[in-house]
Amino acid sequence: MKCPKCGSRKTAPIMYGLPAYTDELKQSLDNKKIVLGGCCISASSPQYHCFNCNKEFGSAPLLISKHGEEDYRAIVTSIYFCVGGFFQGHKEITFENRNKTATVNVLPDFHTPVEDYSRSLSNAEWETLLNKLYCKLFLHEWRKQYDDPNILDGTQWSLKIKLTGNRQRNYYGSNLFPAYWRELKTLFRPYFEEAGISL
Fold first, then answer.
1. CA angle, 147 as apex, 142 and 152 as ends, to 5°?
2. Using 50, 70 and 90 to split pLDDT, how confident is the model at 78?
3. 93 burial level (CB within 10 Å; 0-12, 13-18, 19+)
4. Which of 21, 28, 78, 137 is the most buried (most CB within 10 A)?
């Protein structure tokens, strides 16, 4: 499991509760195969520990607000992703779910001679997309900004998530990328390929 905060694979699952202290448990702890998390567990308890940055991750994708605990997967209404640069142009994709009807729209960059592409998404496709974003890529645990100030051009990207109640979560970067960047592109790539666009 890769840490979404630093990208290290030196991670281990967290075991909660009061396990019996056996030789097997001691060996797993010594070999950093598991980490003890204590007796208290809640829906927001992290599931993994990173030995590289000493952070914990893998909590349920919950937004804590004045409305209480809200699962991000239940309140996302739109996903916008854009990637490119000054010379190569930008590729864009937008997923929307309005009135229980989901769609995807792909816009090519100026180098790609194809038309804009759109189609409807099944409920299963929409749910799979959200589950992967929040439960496999841990989007709710990403930093908001990834910038390298020493490079003026290169690759810029943005990921904008619109939520119910006119709320929004923005993630963006310039020549720096989150730990799950490759997985994010893998998630979106089939939709670009449907439109005849490489990603």
1. 155
2. very high
3. buried
4. 137
